[in-house]
Write a structure and sequence with these properties.
Blueprint (H helix, E strand, L loop, with lengths): L6 H40 L13 H23 L9 H11 L48 H9 L7 E8 L5 E5 L11 H13 L6 E7 L4 E5 L33 H4 L11 H14 L4 E7 L44 H15 L3 E2 L3 E2 L7 E7 L3 H11 L2 H14 L6 H14 L23 H11 L9 H4 L22 E8 L2 E9 L5 E9 L4 H17 L4
Parallel strand pairs: 4-5, 5-6, 5-7
Antiparallel strand pairs: 1-2, 1-11, 3-4, 3-8, 9-10, 10-11
Helix pairs in contact: 1-2, 4-14, 5-9, 5-10, 5-11, 7-8, 9-10, 10-11
Amino acid sequence: MVVPEPRPWRAAGPQVERIANAVRPRLARAVAAVQPRVARLTRSLAFRSPHLPRPRAVRTWQYTAGAATAGLALAAGVVTAAGPWDANGQRTAERDRAIALERSGGADHGGPATSTGAPLPAPSAPPVLTALGAATDAVSTKKAAPGGKPLTDVLEPLLAVPELGDGHAAAVVDLTTGKRLYGSDDGEALTPASTTKIATAVAALSALGPDHRFTTRAALEPGTGDLVLVGGGDPTLTAHKEAGGTSRDGGPSRASEAERGGEAERGGEAESGGSWASLRQLAADTAQALTKRGIHKVTLSYDATLFTGPAVHPIGVNDNLAPVSALTTDEGRTDDSTSGPAPRVSDPAADAAGKFAAFLKSAGITTTPPGPAKASTRAQTLATVSSPPLSDVVERMLTNSDNDIAETLARQTALTSGQPGSFDGGARAISARLTKLGLPMAGASFHDGSGLDRADRLTADLLTGLLVTAGDPGRPGLRPVLTGLPIAGFTGTLTSRYSNGAAGVVRAKTGTLTGVNALAGTVVDADGRSLAFAFLASGTTDPQEAQAALDRAATALAGCGCG
């Protein structure tokens, strides 16, 4: 009869084997050390005097107990020899080595919660290092054979193709050391399209921190019966019936990264799910608080004054971006979609307040038709809902190429930096934050946070600098910039790309406007090095052919053991 191996032991097998291999040499030395003593003891017992009384019979259970005790003692000795161990059963040396290899800013993005008991950011997915269709072995860390092809010889033929138009720039940098490995017009400022979102992400995380949350609240003006819905600039607030589950720590769970779709002028954001702040929940909590006060009818207003300036992007009314507002639900979409281009409401704040009124009515609270107002400093907050931590929001923005989130984050960065919450204020704040980080800003020009504005200008040098800064062990709060990049062949705007090579190895932000194609991200090469790269192309005539050319260049980096 074959007894199947229990599932927990199968799962623990590799770890047990590693521990056994680690302690085997020390155990062998321990056995060798005690052998002489065991031999002497054996001899002494063999010549026991026949006149000594015979030992009394030992029962089976005593043999069992004695054997178990001896086994536990031996195990304790082995564990002590192999230690030290921490309270969670992981050997301290192994833990320290793992931390050193992973550097700082790990699964929880490197930062504690902002307040006691506040939920931490959700864990990041581990990096995928093996390409689809490639060998099953992990990416090798062995150095390539001497005389490998120079990186210049590999990239230049792939970038100097008609598909990439009349102008291109490129840079490749070692992500760990920051050493420049390749550059071609890397200081030339070109239209970056949605790769601008990398800059927006770095600036927002630098200004606000990865644990920051955006809060929407309902406040009651004292003595008036006036209820105000106050927008806190949460770009993920939803009015959908199900906002998702909760994470193990009780906070919002991570958004799904199984998205699809294009971006910018081709189609906007890719699909995303997850648990975000719910307007329905805010209404339910508000109704409960009002009922406790004996209030069943209110005058409803809404406050969206956190942001200022024009709400409509300079490109005009566009299905890829709603008017930017501090109070909006589901990005102002009118068709219940969660991805791609869609008609948007003209006034997101009024739309959100109307939905809030309907939810209150369902909960037994009658309201007047909502109108704009500004909550006073005396208004008493009855209920709040908050977004996931900024680390999650940034990852969603980058993976989905979400223009609505990008423009909101630019405004939030502006407000934190003492600038007005507008397109201009956001652009100035992003530039100032990146300058403060010591990044190469020559030629850079920001006009929005999403990259939809064709007047934006970035260099390949700046884009690789942003990625290297995000990977800096001394700046763990910027880690979501790297973890949020779409994974080739798996997530976001790269879901349907790299099916024939480098899937899982390339992680990059795409950028597409009419006549503009860009790609900037990270890749693990054949030497096991982590590289940051940026490719910018202008004057392209076929977006599909242009993106295929950029993908070939990134794939070549993945397979290159170049010196």
